[in-house]
Design brief:
The protein has 12 helices and 14 strands. The protein is an alpha/beta fold. Helix 3 packs across helix 4, helix 3 runs parallel beside helix 6 and helix 4 crosses helix 6.
């Protein structure tokens, strides 16, 4: 079992606690369509989300970010693990508990078009969730029109429009309004702005920050865009091949990263400085096959610091042991990393990405 994710709020109780979350997908083959292998999509994930914070999740495609989001929402069933929301354990066989969880926790998906029903006017789409949970039609309609205004859409213009009549940014605002219709406490945003152009993306991001402040929301923010994650997040969790390799406050992750994979990710960020050129690729090779991940540290096949212990033993998530810098310790107690070669222990120094 990995060490529990530590909070940044002096021991504040977590709104969402996840321990040992695991999901393997079967690979089937043969005449009888039997399982001949398992894709280890999420493997013993631990994380905490504090009330009112934004936890960013980053990593390469296929690392398990979206699968983790769907497991938290119980859209797919976990093979193992424990999920606790606001002190109450959530079980897959507890229909009443799942119903209440989905009032408290909602999700905004990446594809703003396919996540909306093309046959329903968007007002009916927003009303659907509250009506399923027992809210009267009149109250649901009033709530929908309040949400239109809240997300920056004029109810008089948009209530009877269909999804195909809206732009991408407008559809995503509708998706945000639908997610807010049940007055949740936690929103999971899975690549919610990646399909938008930059001007619309900025508007939606600022809308999300305003809603967080005004409604007291908590976010799990999943994105490939490291600049957006830095702008939005209080803490950042880095995943690689189904595992958490580093988690900590955003400033520490971006300025004092401890894991070689985090260093490689941040080194790949585009720079506005014309004099800053990348002479060598920050990371070479493809991720290992998730059906047959390497023993020990899963990153050792691409890591320039790897030693024999990395090939033999799987590193556990624990406090980063950083060297002293001019600004103090290189890592705080709430900065966790899964790496045998953490800075102080090996003498290696993972330089900031600039």
């Amino acid at each position: 079992m990995n060490a529990p994710a530590q909070s940044t709020a002096g021991g504040a109780s977590a709104l969402l606690e996840v321990r040992d979350l695991r999901k393997y997908f079967p690979v089937r083959g043969g005449i009888l369509n039997r399982a001949v292998g398992w894709v280890q999509a999420v493997d013993d994930i631990d994380l905490d989300v504090l009330p009112g914070e934004v936890l960013g999740i980053v990593g390469e495609s296929g690392c398990g970010k979206s699968t983790t989001a769907r497991l938290l929402m119980h859209l797919i069933r976990a093979d193992a693990g424990r999920i606790v929301f606001d002190g109450n354990a959530v079980r897959a066989d507890d229909a009443a508990g799942l119903r209440e969880l989905r009032r408290q926790m909602q999700m905004v998906f990446q594809d703003s078009y396919s996540s909306l029903n093309p046959r329903l006017p968007i007002e009916d789409t927003i009303m659907f969730g509250p009506k399923v949970h027992g809210v009267s039609s009149a109250e649901a309609r009033e709530r929908a029109r309040e949400l239109f205004a809240l997300v920056g859409l004029d109810p008089a213009q948009f209530i009877r429009r269909y999804p195909h009549e809206l732009s991408g940014g407008q559809r995503q605002r509708v998706n945000i309004a639908r997610a807010l219709a049940l007055e949740p406490r936690l929103l999971i945003l899975d690549e919610a702005v990646s399909a938008l152009d930059k001007s619309v993306e900025a508007q939606v991001l600022n809308l999300l920050l305003t809603l967080r402040r005004e409604l007291g929301l908590t976010y799990i923010f999943i994105s490939h865009d490291l600049n957006v994650v830095q702008y939005m997040s209080d803490r950042v969790l880095v995943m690689y091949l189904g595992k958490v390799v580093e988690i900590g406050p955003t400033a520490e992750i971006y300025q004092r990263m401890q894991h070689p994979y985090t260093e490689a990710l941040l080194s790949a960020m585009p720079s506005m400085d014309p004099d800053r050129r990348t002479e060598t690729p920050p990371l070479v090779g493809d991720p290992p096959n998730p059906i047959d991940p390497p023993p020990g540290c899963r990153f050792h096949t691409r890591c320039r610091f790897a030693e024999d212990v990395c090939r033999r033993a799987e590193p556990r998530l624990g406090p980063a042991a950083g060297e002293e810098t001019a600004d103090g310790p290189a890592a705080g107690a709430d900065h966790l990393v899964a790496c045998h070669m953490r800075v102080a222990a090996s003498g290696h120094s993972l330089a900031p990405a600039g």
